[in-house]
Design goal:
Structural class of chain A: mainly alpha
Largest interface: A-B, 15 and 21 residues
Largest sheet of chain A: none
Largest sheet of chain B: 2 strands, antiparallel
Oligomer: heterodimer
Order of helices and strands of chain A: HHH
Structural class of chain B: mainly alpha
Distance between the termini of chain A: 18 Å
Strand content of chain B: 5-15%
Number of strands of chain B: 4
Number of helices of chain A: 3
Number of helices of chain B: 7
Radius of gyration of chain A: 17 Å
Order of helices and strands of chain B: EEHHHEEHHHH
Strand order of the largest sheet of chain B: 1-2
Number of strands of chain A: 0
Shape of chain A: elongated
Helix content of chain A: over 70%
């Protein structure tokens, strides 16, 4: 298998497998936040701010995978 | 194939200091921001102020209330640093989306052959910048912890000899402080660099109008990443001031 082919497969695998976990995590976080707003509509401000914070943490992990994939592809 | 490189390219050298295109963009943003700030100051001294002044004041008030929810009474002490983080990151994220940034090329002589490199490049797509911001944030967290708790009390959070479980927790705290540096720098770098790459690749694949929704998305992401960096720094400053439990 040539280096170019291996690089392409590695890029696809890195980003593909890397966003499964964060995707599930963000879905759960947003779902719980929507549920909390539904139960208590007055707390919408603080629930939304905390949800954005939680999503940013989970998205950071997906971005780590994306950076590795870009590094494999372009160097 | 389009020219995408993780390293920013050197444009010229200033007596053996290489000036990269991201440093050049940082200089441009610095000059523009200083002019805006001086004009804001001059308008604030007038009797009748215009809508530019009110817009910026609204932004500052919203930012203040965002940090007020974290700090409460002590917001005034931390607000200059956190608002600086927010405005620096926001302006640099959005600067990379301006037409011309990243697409206007300049011929650079590199070891006796000529390559074409972009003249300007958003500063937050440079890992050096984001690493510097992360180091400032994390080391200031330690300073905040030491000045508010005292050195011995603050070190008790990391070296806790009461029981093996507590010792292990202390070790995990130390490791997580270092991983915060990596997380801060890579979160910001990855989001903004990946956005720039996506816009370039989409424009390469389908040259008509396909980059436009990605551009709007990147404007939103640039704002969110600035908020997240500042808010996360605020939360870590707050946590550093708590005693060990």
């Amino acid at each position: 298998m040539s280096l170019e082919a291996a690089k392409t497969i590695a890029t696809a695998l890195a980003i593909g497998l890397g966003v499964i976990g964060p995707g599930i995590g963000i879905g759960i976080t947003a779902g719980k936040a929507v549920e909390a707003i539904g139960r208590n509509p007055e707390a919408e401000g603080i629930v939304r701010a905390t949800m954005i914070l939680g999503i940013a943490f989970a998205e950071g992990l997906a971005i780590f995978a994306l950076v590795i994939a870009l590094m494999i592809r372009f160097t | 194939m389009i020219h995408i490189s993780i390293k920013p390219e050197r444009i010229f050298s200033l007596w053996a200091f290489p000036v990269t295109n991201s440093l050049l963009a940082a200089g441009v943003v610095l000059v523009l921001f200083t002019l805006c700030a001086l004009w804001y100051n001059r308008i604030s001294k007038r009797k009748s102020k215009n809508s530019f002044f009110y817009l910026i004041t609204l932004g500052l008030r919203l930012l203040y209330s965002l940090f007020h929810s974290v700090f409460g009474e002590k917001t005034d002490y931390f607000f200059p640093l956190l608002a600086s983080f927010f405005f620096f990151i926001l302006l640099h994220n959005w600067f990379g989306l301006i037409p011309g940034v990243g697409s206007l090329l300049i011929a650079v002589k590199e070891n006796s052959h000529v390559v074409f490199a972009p003249l300007l490049r958003g500063d937050t797509t440079d890992l050096n910048t984001t690493l510097a911001l992360a180091l400032i944030s994390v080391s200031y967290t330690q300073v905040v912890g030491v000045t508010s708790l005292g050195l011995k009390e603050y070190l008790k959070k990391f070296i806790n000899l009461k029981s093996p479980m507590a010792f292990f927790t202390g070790v995990m705290e130390t490791i997580s402080e270092f991983s915060k540096i990596i997380a801060f720098s890579f979160r910001l770098f990855g989001n903004i660099f990946a956005g720039e790459v996506i816009i370039a690749i989409m424009a390469f694949l389908i040259p008509i109008l396909i980059s436009f929704p990605f551009l709007l998305f990147e404007i939103f992401i640039g704002f969110i990443q600035a908020v997240v960096f500042a808010l996360l720094s605020a939360v870590f400053f707050r946590l550093a001031m708590e005693k060990a439990h």
